[in-house]
Amino acid sequence: MSHTPFDEEPAIATLEISLGLRWPETTNRSVSVRLGDLPVDRCGMVIGDASGLDAWTGMNDQPADGLADVTYWGRYADDAHAQFGGGRIAQYGVDGPHGWLDLPLAEAAARASELTAWCDRLHGKGLMVSIDKHTDYHRFRRAGWHHPLRAGAIDVSGCQVLGIEWDQGDHSIRHHGEREAGQVYPVTLEADETGEMVMRWIIPPYDFDDEDEQGAMLCGPQWS
């Protein structure tokens, strides 16, 4: 873990996952095997066994438990709280929005509609309302609410799947453009000190010298 220079929030520097396998005795432990590369995706990342990922449910899928969370925030959030209630949903480093967790889908939809209609009637704008169905996508985000790196593990079809969100300030300034802009970092297979096989993904420290050089090239004299 390191702290991003853009907003001083914690960010991932190295991701290491043990695969539970021994490094082959006939293979040199000191030589890593490059598997490919990955970008820091603004939508987050999930890492897990293929059988778990095959069963993964995304934002537009239906929740297996039939439940959803409702949250609201914005300029008139305090007024809405006085009218409708809803607990403060704490998240790491912030108070979080008001809302209700683990509601049946129909109740969640009705509560969100009441909030939206109330705001439209009295204010027009100034209140954001979200319904988050308990898909695997939302469950991994919720599992990371209290983690400094916004990371959390959930069970998907009997498999543990790790989900990671990214610091928005770090992403928007450092990783913006992702793969299309060449913003990718190598994933390797290596042996740890005990001979166990691990997968590593290393994001190098931000290089301010490169930024200064690029700025000098853009701002320097030009001739035609």
Structure in words:
With 224 residues, this protein is an alpha+beta fold. It has helices at residues 50-54, 77-84, 105-122, 136-143, 168-175, 208-219, and strands spanning 2-3, 10-11, 14-22, 33-39, 45-47, 67-73, 87-88, 98-104, 128-133, 151-156, 159-164, 184-191, 196-202. The longest helix has 18 residues, at 105-122. The N and C termini lie far apart (47 Å).
TL;DR of this structure?
The protein has helices at 50-54, 77-84, 105-122, 136-143, 168-175, 208-219, and strands spanning 2-3, 10-11, 14-22, 33-39, 45-47, 67-73, 87-88, 98-104, 128-133, 151-156, 159-164, 184-191, 196-202. With 224 residues, it is an alpha+beta fold.
Helical content (DSSP H or I, runs of 4+)? 25-40%
Shape: elongated
Order of helices and strands: EEEEEHEHEEHEHEEHEEH
Total of DSSP H or I helical runs spanning 4+ residues: 6
The largest sheet has its strands arranged as 3-13-12-4
Rounded to the nearest angstrom, the distance between the terminal CA atoms is 47 Å
Radius of gyration: 22 Å
Q: What structural class do you assign from the helix and strand content?
A: alpha+beta
β-sheet strand percentage: 25-35%
**Record field, number of beta strands:** 13
Q: Which spans of ≥5 residues are poorly predicted at pLDDT below 50?
A: 212-224
Number of domains: 2
Report the sheet with the most strands, covering strand number, pairing sense and barrel closure: 4 strands, antiparallel
Mean pLDDT: 86
